[in-house]
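Quick one: structure tokens for this chain, please?
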Amino acid sequence: MSTSESPLVVGDVFGTYRVRAHNIASDSENKIHDDTVARRYGFSGGLVPGIAVFGYLTRPVAERWDVDWLERGTASARFLQPCYEGEEVTVRALSLPSRSAGTAEVGLSVARPDGTKCAEGVASFPRTAAPAPDLRNYPPAPLPAERPPASATSLAAGTILGTLSLRLDEARATAFADSISDDLSVYRGPRGIAHPALLLALANRVLAGNVVLGPWIHVSSDVNHFSLARYGDAISLRARVAECFERKGHEFVVLDIVVVAEPGRPVQQIRHTAIYRPRPHGPS
């Protein structure tokens, strides 16, 4: 039963969740998830992907607010420190003062066993859905036949990126939920709703499908839900570059992505930030 109408008391424990972190991308094209390469950048081993950590963060929220949150809620996450393979991490959710009438909010965090905070964020549940983005501002475009190297030129602000299109496959989608140890029934069986972290994983694929990347790091994501993505839906991810900048030797890109269920129903809007070129670590 959904508890979306239950009042929240500020400071109350909204939910806790413990999960063993798993590096679901150890064999991916992004070698920041490879132990050897990650150590060259000063990490202890391959990074558990931000999409997995985002999935951990959403668990208490989806468990309590259920499908209503997946249809019109929001979540933001910043990834502060790595999670590593095999660590038992703890997700904590605490109710927050609402910044707008009719909207419930919770603060979220993920911590490693030694107390290191890996990620933090906020989830909100408004009484009514926010207006969906105007799809005319997100025209579909072909993926490049030959991807250019990631650079300040190929990722200049305002650039329309190639559109990723696919059909949501139930077997692959439930396998993804299994890989992040999320067994909520909303992502399985007749309910068949795509996990928000799965859609976030597709946002990663948009970036990788448009430019050639070396090791890169997912920094943060802000997600707004407008409708449900169900298994069997044909979806597209239409994207543009919102920002591209350098900070402390790192090269950043911010993508503005709309997930659309064909023929034209907005599902999510994602503001996706990544370091597409980390600064070198230590002596060259």
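Confidence is low (pLDDT under 50) at residues 1-6.
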